[in-house]
Amino acid sequence: MSTTHYSVLAAGIALIIFVLWFFFGGKKESIQTKEEMPESVESDFAITGIHCPSCMLSIQKVLSRTEGVSDVSTNFESARATVTYDPHALTVKDISSKVDKLGYTATPITEEREMTEESAPDMETEVRDVRMRLIVSVSLTLPVLIISMVLPVFFGMKIAMPPSPLVYVQFVLTSIVLFYAGWRIYKSAIGAITNRASDMNVLIAVGTFAAYIYSAFATIAPGLFLRYGVEPHVYYETVAVIITLILTGKFLEARARSHTSDAIRKLLSLQAKTARVIRDGQEFDIPIEEVSVGEKIIVRPGEKIPVDGVITDGSSAIDESMITGESVPVDKQPGDEVIGATINKTGSFTFEATKIGRDTMLSQIVKMVRQTQATKAPIQKLADMVAGIFVPVVICIAIAAFMVWFIFGPAPSITFALISFVSVLIIACPCALGLATPTAVAVGTGKGAENGILIRSAEALETARKLTAVVLDKTGTITRGEPSLTDVIPITCIDRDQLLTIAASAEKASEHPIAGAIVKGAQSQKLQISSPTRFEAFPGGGIRATVDSKNILIGTSKLMGENNINTSALDESAQELGSHGKTVMYVAVDGECAGLLAVADTVKPESIPAIARLKRLGLKVVMITGDNKQTANAVASEVGVDEVMAEVLPGDKSAAVKEIQRTGGTVAMVGDGINDSPALAQADLGIAIGSGTDIAIESSDITLISGDLNGVATAIELSCATMANIKKNLFFAFIYNTLGIPIAAGALYPALGILLNPMIASVAMAASSLSVVSNALRLRKFVARH
């Protein structure tokens, strides 16, 4: 080897050592944990100026090394960063300044801004900006290509080589492409290097700038090259085309990525803009921001309900599909709760506002969707770890490839060395790797929200597919959670309706849940009930009342025996009903047994098919309840669960879940999120099931708004679909980089004579990122299998 070769080898080795030390060496700033911090606060920031996942990784790395910061989570899809820090050591302005130095902008998200469409990722602005830069880049790259590739065909190669005047035209046009169209790439790269971070912008900037500087020297001082026997080639077309192709990929990627935040935009667009309130006896239309708790609001047919509340006057059927996923309108009466953003279909009504602003159901849903999209699935840790060391390693590989080609390559070796150096840097961009997981998570959780399934974290989404057993609380989950009238059996000359009318009239003065079930049963059948003139309650036994001059006694067989009433004709029926878990009450009129009534917590209609779906998914289904074994077995037999745990106290439910986990199972606990909170916390996956506004978001990993048990199976199916999508994305991203880098470095040249052109490398890089985003967007077509 010549002295020049030894010099290049020594310089290359020294440069590799410096790169490794720069990114991995040196003393890191101490990072306090949350436990060590005397006090910490959490702030959310909207990040603008980013155009790839590695941009966010650079932000996360720099903020994590900042004194006073205990935790940083970033998400490219939602363009948000959540920072937990010590307010005594840092301010929001300090954090924003750190991000600004990287070449991006961090804007604090206040509670007032949280529920506006401005807080959603402003992808349209991003798309417009990239489009403008792309138009400029294409317009200037075309003449560069014509000068370098078309004109030489007609006028010879010398016309595109120094000292031809057209080379200076290429120099000027390429400079504009580089420093205007590609400026954001260079700005981000400078910020990353200054803060000892690494991202894909560093790869692009180093590769294109190396080619540009080499070409600029060849343009300005061609004699210097000729003096050493090197032909002064220029690579302006390579630089311009690479920037143009990367911008094309970013434009297509930004357009596709804008769809991943459709769920949040759709939810935000559901908000009513105004509310018709009653003040001082008059109606006023005011912005919903001015509505106060306790105000009376009028809603007419076809209007959106502005905030959450309780109906005080009137009735209607309300379309709650955009919140619960249920397509059938729900009938509402005075005393029923209504949810903001749902649509009044038929009658007019007045309701009292109970929750406004960020306390409404819609606000909670938007908050949960955003929080979920800002979390990372465990599978993403692998991608993040690889991306964190990827850039400096690739730079080292590119330097090594340059040295090998310069020392051992054919003449002109500098050309082969430069091409391989630039190709490795361009094709190795980890965009596809960084996009693989967050894009799929964003689309998957958004799809869940559309189906009334609120997924609290990406980890919960990943855990759902690993479940082996589902534990269902009986009351309120499998059953309705309140007693309902199930049987009316008369035995005297009065008919069924007469018996029920008499019993409901007698029970009208009682506040007992069983009495309420009887009264509701009569009302549902449009029976006319009256009020008793005399009423007496026997705790644990029943009631005595006078209705239309008739003496009515309703209660247990013991109460009947104490009043010398013969119930033998109904004892067999009572025993049969009791064996099915029903509560039986005898009815006597004027001292004669007239019939019996049965009340039970009835099974929800959707519970049986939902449990069948869970079993088809290969899950073991266990029912847990505090009820007696007879009642529990009756319900279990009806719905078809695999195992029953009866007479379990609320505090012992978590121990029951732990016992299933001890045998190696991955368990989901499904309950109401309130009494079952210890079990929900113990389970690998806690699922709160509720209806209306009564859902326990804070107690669960997943919340089913509609109260339909089918949502459990749908959540699992969505988890499987999302994780399969992520694995495909990661596979293609890893394969792409694994195969692309050796080819770009020239591994195929000795055998096949193939040396990858940097322009082709940039096309492959853009296509890889776009394919990952497009594959993730296929999740938008997810349909649950009922």
Describe this structure as you would to a colleague.
The chain is of the alpha+beta class and 786 residues long. It is 51% helix and 17% strand. The protein contains 29 helices and 26 strands. A seven-stranded mixed sheet has the order 14-26-25-24-15-22-23, sandwiched between helices. Strands 6-5-7-13-8-11 form a six-stranded antiparallel sheet, with no helix packed on it. A hairpin with a 4-residue loop joins strand 2 (69-75) and strand 3. Helix 15 (413-427) packs antiparallel against helix 27 and helix 27 runs antiparallel to helix 29. The chain starts with a helix and ends in a 9-residue tail after the last helix.
Please give the count of helices. 29
User: What is the CA-CA span between the terminal residues?
Assistant: 72 Å
Total strand count, please? 26
On the 0-100 scale, what is the average pLDDT? 80
- Regarding quaternary structure, what we see is single chain
Structural class designation: alpha+beta
Main beta sheet: strand number and arrangement?
Answer: 7 strands, mixed
